[in-house]
Amino acid sequence: MTSKQRAYLKGLAMNLDPIFQVGKASISPELTTGISEALEARELIKISVLKNCLDDPREIASVLSERTHSEVVQVIGKKIVLYRESKEKKKIELPK
Asked: pTM to 2 decimals?
């Protein structure tokens, strides 16, 4: 992913609300499955890491991106933005 594409996705993500929260239990298989399904439906999602989660948000982002085959757009504080191109419902057209 180029820096231009990443900047474009960051702009789109600014208006998104987090649709998942990572809490004390950290990353569970159910959470990973849910995030993967949401990525297929929406392509770009925001995840919030709660204060009671002891893991580092950057670490959580890399593990989630690996498990869901997505890309980490950005991690700011306790917010993670992930992107994965949808196989069937392609909505976001990335700049070249």
From this structure: 0.90
